From TrEMBL:
UniProt domain TonB-dependent receptor-like beta-barrel: residue ranges: 338-741
Membrane topology value: Multi-pass membrane protein
Highest taxon of the lineage: Bacteria
Main location, first listed in the record: membrane
One GO term (biological process): siderophore transmembrane transport
Keywords: Cell outer membrane, Membrane, Receptor, Signal, TonB box, Transmembrane, Transmembrane beta strand, Transport
Record organism: Sphingobacterium alkalisoli
Name by which UniProt lists this protein: TonB-dependent receptor
Pfam families hit by this protein: CarbopepD_reg_2 (PF13715), Plug (PF07715), TonB_dep_Rec_b-barrel (PF00593)
Domain TonB-dependent receptor plug: 118-220
Cellular location(s): Cell outer membrane
Length: 772
């Protein structure tokens, strides 16, 4: 431990000495011009650290006494979009900067008035090729391309993202600038976001409670469309995707255009899939259907922009029939067998058990540039999430849902940004109601949830050092009312009485962040960010008492739960050589969470109900410590051959009991070899790629703490080939892929249905994308 401390002290002193020896006599000069007409721009403000200048006649500017190394530059003009970038200075330099007029506003990096990417946090985006290859997949499977992001599945239909071992309410999802508010609390409640609607998908690792509010203990996922293309009067794209496994077909169409200062976009997507298949057998009742659509309109003002957006997400999902079991003897027999006793055929028909979910979202946004160079951003959003869960019923019709929940959320966000400072306020009103007539007691009661938050973020720079600090305060009021069964005092005949549960809770806490970005060398950067975030317990963790139909479990809440509070430290090393042959990023993290809430499986107990027998999960709370590392490497071996690798390790210890936590991703590695072909006359960007994935057996596991030990390690091979056909100004993208090339029969520890079934077998896929 002393050696580590001495090493850290040595590095710190060396960095300080290095900073004192910096050359700060460099001059930057150049010209500011309009991107569209190449017209010189007078009166633009150019800021680098504490130095500031103004472009004069013909857009000419000059700044002196700048330091050697990376410098962050910001250029502002009342009629143009602000430009921020980093430049590396090693001698006197002359550069021409181009500004975009305000109507080409980068909507995909704007989140209620502040940027989606933070200066000191570990931020990763899917590449254009990864986005194209992931079309037709659910959001979580697309995100799994990023090192450190894995999935938590409930069968083949329902998949949730996991960041550094944390999932559900600990990951904040921003859907086109709006905080997604659905029934995220369930492990079998997938995000109601259609990746077809997004042109940029980004993950920010680390506790981001200051910038994004409570619940962002693990990190943030941002999805956003591209800005309106004002260089085309009208344009769009069409996607068609076919899959062999499940005989699925997906389609998406987008149309957009503009008329002077008015831009617009409409799009729609649909999906249908039948029963999926493992390497050896069909999975009964695993079909899925989707219908989604959205619309967007914006109007360019003299100093800002007004926009409106609305979307609808609708899905009908089948739940694997083998997860709903009749007796105690049967459930243990199926777990021991490891696969269904029944034989299923292919069918598109979706029976009970199933889920039917719709999510409607609408937002209004107004941004305004102030004379002093600042920007004010106001946003109002409304969301309605309607979740219905259907099960096999003995008396009522199967068309009557067992759970019928409606969650409505209204939010108001205001933020003001001036140079390196941002202040803001967020207000949230949420109402959850269970629809009457289901004939069952809802798993969670009705509740009202009110939240108010205020925050401030400041960035400042000193030579090669870039600092970021922030502070936030949130207050949450939670009021609940609903009926519950009294299991402690049954009647003489064994029947249970009901009672009215009423409760009110208050939660409040501070969030904070301190970050540093340091440029060791022109091609080597270090990011370090310490973030404090918190999360109030959700309604299901506090009050659930019943069958969770989607996951095939019986859940019992704990009304005495306290708020989770997590302190996460992420250190990132980023290296890219001058020739851009090697690109490496390494994230090392540690996170201590007090009062961590989790549902612990009890292998010694199951719960029998009139609807069957289910594994029992009870919520508990302990202090825990997460730590691990994520590695990403890209190596351009030759102009035609690329190699890529990603690996992640996460460990989670219950510091109270000194035991491992359940449902933490095991060690994994994925790498690929890709050959890029030379462009032909019409065919361009052609490639073939072979990908290998390895997932280790979860060895960090407490014996006899689950219904069955973790499954064995597995290897998977995937093949992809892609090209683009260019037809004048239009393109047709073609991607052919084979997942699970060897048709391996395997199970994954992070699948809640691994007790009863295996993962998907081989899948052939063809993706067509027509852009016009």
């Amino acid at each position: 431990m002393n050696k580590v401390a001495l090493a850290c002290l040595f590095v710190f002193v060396s960095v300080l000495l290095h900073a004192q020896q910096k050359n700060c006599n460099i001059q930057l000069s150049g010209q500011i011009v309009d991107k569209t007409g190449n017209k010189a721009i007078d009166g633009a403000i150019i800021s680098i650290s504490k130095n500031q200048g103004i472009s004069k006649d013909k857009g000419i500017f000059s700044l002196k006494n700048l330091c050697l190394g990376y410098n962050k530059i910001r250029i502002e003009h009342i009629s143009y979009q602000p430009l921020e970038m980093e430049i590396y200075l090693e001698r006197d330099t002359s550069i021409t900067f181009t500004l975009e007029i305000e109507h080409i506003h980068m909507e995909d990096i704007k989140i209620v008035g502040y940027k989606s990417t933070t200066l000191t946090s570990s931020t990763h985006s899917l590449t254009a090729q990864q986005l194209a290859e992931s079309k037709g997949k659910v959001l979580a499977d697309a995100l799994a391309e990023i090192a450190g992001v894995t999935t938590l599945a409930t069968g083949s239909n329902i998949v949730k993202p996991v960041i550094n071992g944390l999932h559900s309410n600990r990951i904040l999802l921003l859907n086109n600038g709006v905080r997604q508010e659905g029934q995220q609390w369930g492990v079998e409640h997938a995000p109601e976001i259609d990746p077809f609607m997004s042109d940029k998908i980004e993950v920010i690792k680390g506790a981001q409670g200051v910038r994004y509010g409570a619940d962002a203990l693990a990190g943030v996922v941002l999805t956003s469309p591209a800005p309106i293309d004002y260089e085309k009067v009208i344009g769009g794209r069409i996607n068609l995707i076919g899959n062999s496994n499940g005989k699925g077909l997906s389609g998406h169409a987008r149309l957009e255009g503009h008329a002077n200062k008015l831009g617009w976009r409409i799009s729609a997507s649909s999906k249908i899939r039948g029963n999926t298949k493992t390497a050896g057998y069909y999975l009964g009742n695993t079909g899925a259907k989707e219908l989604n659509y959205d619309g967007y309109i914006e109007y360019i003002l003299s100093r800002g922009k007004f926009s409106a957006y609305a979307s609808h997400f609708g899905t009908d999902l089948g739940i694997f029939s083998g997860a709903h079991i009749g007796t105690i003897e049967d459930i243990y027999a199926r777990i021991e067998n490891g696969k269904p006793f029944e034989s299923y055929d292919f069918s598109y028909h979706i029976n009970s058990p199933r889920q039917q979910v719709t999510h409607d979202l609408a937002k209004l946004n107004w941004s305004h540039q102030v004379n002093n160079g600042g920007e004010l951003d106001l946003q109002y959003s409304f969301q309605r999430n309607h979740r219905q869960e259907f099960d096999l019923r003995r008396i009522e019709s199967d068309d009557t849902p067992m759970a019928d929940m409606v969650l409505t959320t209204q939010s108001f966000d205001a933020a003001y940004t001036h140079h390196e400072s941002t202040v803001g306020i967020n207000a949230n009103l949420q109402v959850h109601n269970n629809t009457a007539g289901t004939g069952t007691t809802p798993i969670i009661p009705n509740f009202d949830n009110y939240t108010l938050g205020i925050f401030g973020i400041q960035q400042f720079h000193l030579a090669n050092y870039h600092f970021e600090i922030g502070l936030r305060y949130d207050y949450r009021y939670f009021d609940v009312a609903g009926y519950r069964y009294d299991y402690k005092n049954p009647n003489a005949n064994g029947s249970l009485n009901q009672y009215l549960l009423e409760d009110t809770k208050y939660f409040h806490n501070l969030s904070g962040t301190v970050g540093l970005l340091y440029h060791f060398l022109p091609n080597l950067n270090w990011k370090s960010n310490i973030g404090l975030a918190w999360r109030a317990p959700s309604a299901n963790e506090l009050y659930s008492d019943g069958v969770h139909h989607g996951s095939g479990t019986y859940e019992v809440g704990n009304v005495n739960l306290q708020s989770e509070k997590g302190l996460k430290w992420v250190n990132s090393l980023l290296y890219k050589d001058k020739a851009e042959k090697i690109d490496i990023s390494l994230d090392v993290f540690g996170q201590y969470i007090t009062d961590y809430i989790y549902a612990n499986p009890n292998p010694d107990s199951v719960r029998q109900t009139i609807r069957g027998t289910f594994p029992l999960y009870a919520y508990r709370q302990d202090d825990v410590f997460f730590y691990g590392a994520d590695l990403k490497l890209e190596y351009h071996i030759t102009k035609a051959i690329d190699y890529g690798l990603s690996a992640s390790i996460v460990k989670a210890i219950n510091t109270d009991t000194k035991e491992y936590l359940p449902y933490i991703p095991s060690d994994r590695l994925a790498h690929y070899l890709q050959h890029q072909f030379k462009d032909a006359q019409a065919l361009r960007s052609s490639y073939i790629k072979l990908n290998h994935r390895f997932v280790a057996r979860q060895s960090r596991y407490e014996v006899n703490s689950d219904y069955t030990p973790p499954p064995a390690a597995y290897h998977l091979l995937d093949f992809t080939a892609g090209t683009q056909l260019h037809l004048k100004s239009n393109t047709i993208g073609i991607i052919f892929s084979i997942d699970n090339l060897t048709n391996k029969l395997y199970k994954d520890y992070m699948d809640r249905f691994r007790y009863y079934a295996h993962q998907l077998g081989r899948n052939y896929s063809i993706k067509l994308a027509y852009n016009f």
